[in-house]
Design brief:
The complex is a heterodimer of chains A (390) and B (117). Chain A is built from 20 helices and no strands. Chain A is mainly alpha-helical and 390 residues long. In chain B, a hairpin with a 2-residue loop joins strand 3 and strand 4. Classes of the chains: A mainly alpha (390), B alpha+beta (117).
């Protein structure tokens, strides 16, 4: 109760949570059998369901409560999750992300069973009807049962691939929240917070996996800029133009500390390098102070680990800062990314800087046509208008 | 213990050369020995090509027998295994070896528990 009271902030909340946990135990243990450590199970379940309730009750305006959830770190004297309970969550996580399940099913199951969102909340977050999301979850659980997907942590031989899938699911959730693929809002805060919570859980469960640490670091550094990324009017504000005073210093500090931890580990991977790139940006007091050569060097490293056109596109943006827009445009024009709105936006910006206004306008048009959400579209349309006006 | 069907998806068209087939045959033999040693083997067999197929159907009480496979497609069922396995990951392990040996995609599908019949 002490642990729960501290975590949940009140005895009432703790008592409610414990009640729910016991009720859940009475429902499930007859079928699943007793967990190895019943007290640990109850504590963890109560803590998680209590946090779930806090989340649901915290309104959008209740920034303090939301900040608490985002920053929720283990207190020094709080007991770590008992071994068997931790193992249970790990098993559940890998089961949810089994390759036999479709990516959509993996995401839905993970967010539902390991995250705290209800089916209705997940449906809203991913812009599908609730009935559709409910069906997706039902079918996923049926597949686990019918196909005999095992409830275990994968063997060492399978672990690298399976861990990559888990990280990809968490990143997918964050990405969906960061740049909503459609709709009016630019960012869905709930999803970002959910992804970060899962990221923290991953690091807690697998502290020796540097890519898990890298993913969390990257998400924290991105999240630190969320407030600055939209103007009060809801317009998109690019990194170069953001008021860095609005960055969340605590998240920046934590993200950078995790990046340093990764560097010490010296087992680089794509998420760690992306985190390091973000750390370089977070280091700069103003946009002009950005160490673009360092950013470019990191993109060179990322390209070796993850040689994809999208990485090449983002690297070209760094090339433009170090070598100028012309060599960058040369690189971008060789990329086959015609369906990606960012490709056209980057091209448009480079063309604009080179004074090729008509081509820039055409590229902005292409970007607008492909952009997924209203603030991004509005931003691109403003840029296009600036090109026309001159 | 569950039972799984492992199906080989074979593209239509000419079969590989004798050399290739011999290598595949050797690897499949080794795989089948391992499946048997593990106590997982139920059945395995390779199929003649779709041209050798005949389809029987009953419509309005009348039996219709036609030449050729049931489904015309770009791929056909080339062969299959039935294996016992405690869970999907074990079945997928056999499927990976089958895929490497045949260089072809392998579909893994669970059978209904026989208790359900």
């Amino acid at each position: 109760m002490a642990v729960l009271t501290r975590v949940l902030g009140s005895i009432d909340a703790a008592e409610d949570a414990v009640q729910e946990a016991f009720a859940a135990a009475l429902r499930t243990w007859p079928q699943t059998g007793m967990p190895p450590s019943p007290p640990g199970w109850v504590i963890t379940t109560a803590r998680n369901s209590g946090i779930d309730r806090l989340r649901r009750e915290a309104t959008r305006e209740d920034r303090q409560a939301r900040a608490a959830l985002l920053h929720a770190q283990r207190q020094p004297d709080e007991p770590t999750e008992e071994g068997p309970v931790r193992d249970d969550r790990l098993r559940l996580l890998f089961t949810c992300c089994h390759p036999a399940l479709s990516p959509a099913a993996q995401v839905a199951l993970t967010v539902r069973l390991l995250g705290g969102l209800t089916t209705a909340e997940i449906a809203r977050a991913f812009l599908v009807p609730e009935a559709t999301m409910a069906q997706r979850l039902v079918r996923a659980k049926a597949k686990i049962r019918d196909a005999g997907i095992p409830y275990r942590v994968p063997r060492p031989a399978d672990l690298p691939d399976r861990l990559r899938a888990v990280l990809a699911v968490v990143y997918l959730v964050y990405n969906e929240g960061w740049s909503a693929s459609s709709g009016a809002a630019l960012v869905r805060e709930d999803l970002c917070a959910e992804a970060i919570r899962l990221g923290r859980l991953l690091v807690e469960l697998m502290p020796d996996e540097p890519e898990a640490v890298g993913l969390l670091a990257m998400m924290l550094l991105l999240e630190s800029r969320r407030a600055a990324r939209t103007s009060p009017g809801g317009d998109l504000v690019l990194l170069a133009e953001q008021d860095r005073g609005r960055w969340d210093a605590a998240l920046v500090a934590e993200g950078q500390q995790l990046v340093r931890r990764c560097l010490r580990r010296d087992r680089p991977g794509p998420y760690q390098v992306q985190a390091a790139i973000n750390a370089v940006h977070s280091d700069a007091a103003t946009a002009a102070d950005t160490d673009w050569r360092q950013v470019l060097a990191l993109y060179d490293q990322l390209l070796v680990l993850s040689p994809t056109p999208v990485v090449m596109l983002h690297r070209a943006v760094a090339v433009a800062e170090v070598e100028g827009p012309a060599p960058a445009l040369e690189l971008v024009d060789h990329l086959d990314l015609g369906n990606y709105h960012v490709f056209h936006a980057v091209r448009a910006d480079l063309l604009r800087r080179l004074g090729r206004r008509q081509e820039a306008a055409a590229a902005y048009d292409a970007a607008v046509a492909l952009a997924g959400n209203a603030p991004e579209r509005a931003f691109l349309e403003r840029r296009r208008a600036e090109v026309d006006a001159r | 213990m569950k039972q799984y069907l492992l199906s080989i998806y074979q593209p239509d068209g000419p079969i590989p050369s004798a050399d290739v087939l011999e290598k595949v045959g050797r690897e499949l033999h080794a795989l089948n020995e391992d499946i048997k040693a593990a106590g997982s083997w139920v059945f395995t067999g390779g199929l003649h090509d779709p041209a050798s197929a005949t389809v029987v159907r009953v419509r309005d009480g009348e039996v219709l027998t036609t030449d050729g496979p049931y489904v015309e497609g770009k791929e056909h069922l080339g062969g299959l295994w039935v294996v016992n396995a405690p869970d999907l990951d074990v079945a997928l392990g056999w499927a990976e070896r089958a895929s490497r040996a045949t260089t072809l995609p392998i579909e893994v599908r669970p059978f209904h528990d026989r208790a359900e019949y």
